[in-house]
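Pasting two entries for a bug report.
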Amino acid sequence: MGVARIPMACVSVVFTHPAFRKQGVATALMQDAIAFATSHQRSLLLLDGIPKFYYRYGYTDVFDLSSYQVDRNAILAQAAGNYAVRTVTPEDATPLLALYERHYGSYTGSFVRSLDQQRYMLEYQATRRHMVASLGPEGVMKGYLLLSAASHPHTALECVADDWEALLSLLQYHAHLHDGLQDIPQSLHYRLPPTSPMVRWMREHLEVPDTSEWETGHEEWSVLRQTYHHRYAGCMARLVHFPSLLEAVLPELQRRWRQTLACWEGAITLIVGTEAVTLHISGRRLWLSASEEASVRLQMSPQSLTQLVFGYVPISWGLKESNLALSHEVLAALTNLFPVDHTWIPGSDWP
């Protein structure tokens, strides 16, 4: 989460043999996962959920995937640059890790990974996914593209580029992969954060070469954004320990407060169940305590607190349970501390 590091546990697979379903097996497994995370001092549990199941164990939505459809002809209409594209190898782990950290490391939801982990991922993914890198004229790695399995060749799970030329080389490589196929897709799909500069570059440069059949310009596109949401069915998280979560995110809360122009001073107590943590603000300083003497006391559910941390909902939604009429200054302070839309889970971090 920005400069903060949150200790988490991730649930990868939950499966019950068909002959033993609806006998409490999955419930026992989920309860054991919570006990495991608690005993190992994890603040959160994270999983990619199936519909209408995990919410009963305290999980809630924290991230909606955004995907961009890009018109293939708009990509091919661009003049090719002088960047080269080649398949990556485990020996490329160092520059690939640097690219990953530079582009995704500041998002809530990216994972800390070592160089050894990066090498392992490259070796593991070689049998399941296809990854290529863009090299500048000097041979320096300037971007990479992670493609999904052969059953979905039109979809890129992860894309990184330091500049437009690197991005264009990756897009054109992806577009040419479909040359000669019987069913050539009209568009290619890219999972990208809405705040990524790569989205802006595509909007600024890509144009459909033939618009003669367009009916109305404002409903046509060269780049089309889609956001996928189904309640309790996607990326979900569960609060494990409230005080340790606030302690973990404190460095990022302090950074955010130092960057604001707000001048409010005071204390705000956040209460989740029977536990309370108080945020103290004075000048540019922000710290935590177990004191509950603050004049502003906000009762929240574990799910609301989790969604606030991930920036999934604005502060006004997260505080609806308190039924308090907060002053403009307090609301502005909380908005600066818990902004929306800062979460992105890169494709290489998905199972």
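Entry 2 (this is the one that rendered wrong in the viewer):
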Amino acid sequence: MNLTFYKYQGTGNDFVVLDNRNESIALTQEQVAFLCDRRKGIGADGLMLLQNKEGYDFEMVYYNADGRPSSMCGNGGRCLVAFAQFLEVVENQAYFIAADGPHQAFLKDGLVHLQMKDVDTLEALEGATFLDTGSPHYVKQVEALQEMNVFAEGRAIRYSDRFKAEGTNVNFVEHLPENRLSVRTYERGVEDETFSCGTGVTACALAASQAGYESPIHIQVLGGELQVSFEKEGTGFKNVYLIGPAVQVFKGEITL
């Protein structure tokens, strides 16, 4: 099978993107893992298919780098909106369906604004917060973030008794002045630290609001900067937006 693929990245979170509107692409777990392999394949944190879906501009189908179907990916969603605009499926606004439900998005001044799911509650754990922003996230506030071994500490939490069955993404966040955060994330499915995690920074922003941070919050990740805006509603949040760049890196062909 010959595939035409595109490579996109959003603040260093990179993806193999495929146009499957004609429903001709069916990949096995092993094939997805191969395409995402950084030594033997194309290399990416995940793979996405853009597909037709009645009632929506398109459907987002997302796979982790290990080849398994995954929950929502925020940076992936932003990149797929940019891809849909490139394909002329949408102009400056999009309404699409993903694993966690419908999403709206718009493009403005070179940035993709992606509406994330509403969050009803934040669960307080010992020294951390757990919440679902389309994917499950463990958020721990730390100091001296840049000196941490995020791989080792994140992996230990991800495979702890509480989370090892379903897994969780693990975020370490340092609170900075002027309504800013610095975030590093260990992602399940990739099983490593990534340069950026959209649902992760969203989770960190909502958790930080409990400490007095106000919308919009600016978040520094290894791959650049993102913003999260939101409205608080009781113990939850609505109109949550993940905002940042989405860039097409290259187009290529590969044979499976």
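Dev reply: Rendering is fixed now. As a check, the viewer should reflect this: The domain at 2-113+245-255 is CATH 3.10.310.10 (Diaminopimelate Epimerase; Chain A, domain 1).
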